[in-house]
Specification:
Largest sheet: 2 strands, antiparallel
Order of helices and strands: EEHHHHHH
Helix content: 40-55%
Number of helices: 6
Strand content: 5-15%
Number of strands: 2
Shape: elongated
Strand order of the largest sheet: 1-2
Radius of gyration: 25 Å
């Protein structure tokens, strides 16, 4: 037997129903929900196909760092490691990790070091 529970407002007027998942799934299969969707215009971006690994995104969010720093951490490198590999000072690595508009040549060098695409190191 299917039990349906109702959620009411303070006046006892039914506002919603709680139904068993099996019934919900059957109803969803039969439903024509096109009226719930709205067409929106989307302008394709040049990097729409660039994907960022979930682990990199998690690092960005959990450590509150830029995408460049997240990739560095994801690859298990310190700023000092990156500086040594690129032949620059650690302070320079820190600077371009904090930059909102990092120079293209720095991003290209990082992409090569982190084994990713340039598009994966920018958020535009």
């Amino acid at each position: 037997m299917n039990h349906i529970q109702f959620i009411t407002d303070e006046h006892g007027v039914k506002q919603a129903a709680v139904i068993p998942m099996e019934l919900f799934e059957r109803l969803m299969l039969q439903a024509d929900l096109d009226e719930l969707y709205e067409d929106i215009t989307v302008t394709p971006g040049k990097h729409d196909d660039a994907q960022i690994p979930n682990e990199v995104v998690e690092i960005m969010l959990s450590k509150d760092v830029t995408i460049q720093a997240a990739w560095r951490i994801y690859r298990g490198l310190t700023q000092k490691d990156v500086a040594e590999k690129l032949g620059i000072k650690q302070a320079a690595v820190s600077q371009f990790e904090k930059s909102e508009n990092p120079r293209k040549d720095n991003i290209e060098r990082l992409a090569q070091l982190y084994q990713c695409k340039v598009e994966q190191l920018t958020m535009d």
